[in-house]
């Protein structure tokens, strides 16, 4: 299989199927051989096992570390650990970086200190900083001692920044040149490299103290006269750079807005200390998106799909407990109007519609607000303007769709007052949903909490209890 085929995005599912087939075939054949009564039974069994292991190992050796990580995440624990043992030791570090946090934990638990140290030492300082929180302290200490002074300083710097900052994402593998040399000298310098750092689209021009003076794109380098100096062709104006303290969200938006592939990271004195690449930004965006999806569902952290029952319970119980409380509150709201429901049975059939539509509308609003916050498009000062706008949308939707449901209720149950109550309840609950959809995420952000976490859970709780109370309350007042 050639490299192009191996990296085709559609192949990952095929790779997974092939590994699963190899594992299943190994299990069936070895069980069959184990049950056979034959001469030299143990030797035959050992040979069969080695044959299947060699075939599976050959398959794994041909795969990219990211593909192996994907396969490990898709395997139950026992098979995952069996496949993990077959991976070449020099690839352990790369694969540990690619797998999810939950799966990484299950793999690290099976490795001894020497294996972990060897895996960590194969990584660059910025990669090691990503893996360090999951490694035992004694392993990190041993690795730290094995680094040279520059590596220690880079690792210390990478680990000192918050995980949502540019400093935590930057890498130190970059190419810098001086402004007073010719392009011919730069070309000869680049030819000394076995390969350029990944995602190198520009060289950073610095002085003798590493202060950033400008950038030299590879395109400019290749098409310009080699006799020209770097200073004559470099771009020194409108150079986009970041500091380690900058928010990763802001950097991600800048990469998207200006179609960046790489950008320099500078300190307070404009010295180049690292770079940010599109690969780092894409990984960050993916992780943030996954965290937002999980948070909206009330999950505390990414969960290994094959985790133990107890680990899964611990990850999910917090918001389920909140749901239990809110469901109990909703049931007590209904209990307050038992007599009204007994007198007019139609209320029991119609009230879930009011609550359900309110929940859907609220989730639409909270999704839009959370996205706008994540994109940096909404400031706290805009909260009341957004609230007025969303209340206007809710009022129109309530009158239109509530009016339609009111007409249907009138037709089904032959009661015009019931239809009017349905319209009023729907409108009021949509107004409640709009208010909650704006205020919940924005107030959470103002208090320093993640606006995405638990948003849909809280909206559903409010619109259920509020919808029941509004509908049954109006029915009690105007119909009974």
What is this structure, in a nutshell?
This protein is mainly alpha-helical and 480 residues long. It contains 23 helices and five strands. The strands form two sheets. It has a three-stranded mixed β-sheet with strand order 1-2-3. Strands 4-5 form a two-stranded antiparallel ribbon.
Mean pLDDT: 85
Task: Enumerate the strands of the largest sheet in spatial order, edge to edge or round the barrel.
Answer: 1-2-3
Shape: globular
User: What Rg is obtained from the alpha carbons, in whole angstroms?
Assistant: 30 Å
CATH fold title of the largest domain: Tetracycline Repressor, domain 2
- Total count of domains: 3
SSE string: HHHHHHHHHHHHEHEEHHHEEHHHHHHH
Low-confidence stretches: 1-6
Major sheet, described briefly? 3 strands, mixed
CATH architecture of the largest domain: Orthogonal Bundle
The CA-CA distance between the termini, in Å, is 76 Å
Beta-strand content bin: 5-15%
Topology, number of strands? 5
Number of helices: 23
The secondary-structure class comes to mainly alpha
State the CATH superfamily name of the largest domain.
SLC41 divalent cation transporters, integral membrane domain
Mind telling me the CATH class of the largest domain?
Mainly Alpha
Protein name: Magnesium transporter MgtE
GO molecular function, one term: metal ion binding
GO cellular component, one term: plasma membrane
Membrane topology: Multi-pass membrane protein
């Amino acid at each position: 299989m050639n490299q192009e085929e191996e990296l085709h995005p559609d192949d990952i599912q095929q790779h997974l199927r092939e590994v699963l087939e190899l594992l299943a075939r190994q299990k069936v054949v070895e069980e069959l051989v184990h049950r056979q009564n034959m001469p030299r039974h143990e030797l035959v069994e050992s040979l069969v096992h080695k044959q299947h292991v060699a075939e599976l190992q050959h398959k794994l050796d041909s795969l990219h570390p990211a593909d192996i990580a994907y396969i490990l995440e898709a395997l139950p624990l026992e098979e995952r650990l069996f496949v993990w043992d077959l991976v070449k030791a020099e690839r352990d570090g790369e694969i540990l970086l690619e797998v999810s946090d939950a799966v990484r934990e299950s793999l690290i638990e099976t490795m001894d200190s020497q294996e972990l140290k060897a895996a960590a030492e194969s990584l660059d300082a910025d990669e090691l900083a990503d893996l360090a929180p999951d490694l035992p302290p004694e392993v990190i200490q041993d690795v730290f001692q094995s680094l040279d002074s520059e590596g220690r300083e880079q690792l210390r710097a990478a680990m000192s920044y918050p995980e949502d900052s540019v400093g935590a994402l930057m890498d130190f593998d970059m190419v810098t040149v001086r402004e007073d040399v010719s392009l011919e000298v730069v070309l000869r310098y680049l030819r000394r490299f076995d390969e350029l750092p990944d995602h190198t689209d520009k060289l950073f021009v610095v002085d003798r103290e590493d202060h950033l003076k400008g950038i030299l794109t590879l395109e400019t380098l290749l098409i310009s006269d080699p006799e020209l100096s770097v200073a004559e062709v470099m771009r020194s104006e409108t150079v986009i750079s970041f500091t380690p303290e900058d928010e990763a969200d802001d950097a991600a938006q800048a990469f998207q807005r200006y179609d960046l592939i790489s950008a320099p990271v500078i300190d307070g004195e404009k010295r180049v200390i690292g770079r940010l690449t599109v690969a780092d930004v894409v990984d960050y965006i993916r992780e943030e998106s996954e965290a937002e999806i999980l948070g909206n569902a009330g999950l505390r952290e990414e969960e290994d799909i094959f985790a133990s029952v107890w680990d899964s319970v611990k990850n999910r119980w917090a918001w389920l407990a909140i749901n239990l409380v809110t469901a109990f509150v909703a049931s007590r709201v209904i209990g307050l109007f038992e007599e009204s429901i007994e007198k007019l049975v139609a209320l029991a059939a119609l009230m879930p519609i009011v609550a359900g539509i309110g929940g859907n509308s609220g989730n639409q609003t909270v999704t839009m607000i959370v996205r706008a916050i994540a994109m940096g498009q909404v400031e706290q000062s805009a909260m009341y303007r957004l609230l007025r706008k969303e209340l206007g949308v809710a009022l129109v939707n309530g009158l239109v769709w509530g009016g339609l449901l009111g007409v249907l209720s009138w037709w089904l149950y032959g009661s015009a007052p019931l239809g009017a109550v349905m319209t009023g309840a729907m409108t009021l609950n949509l107004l409640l949903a709009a208010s909650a959809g704006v205020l919940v995420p924005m107030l959470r952000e103002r208090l320093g909490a993640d606006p995405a976490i638990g948003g849909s859970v809280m909206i559903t709780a409010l619109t259920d209890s509020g919808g029941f109370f509004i509908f049954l309350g109006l029915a009690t007042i105007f119909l009974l």
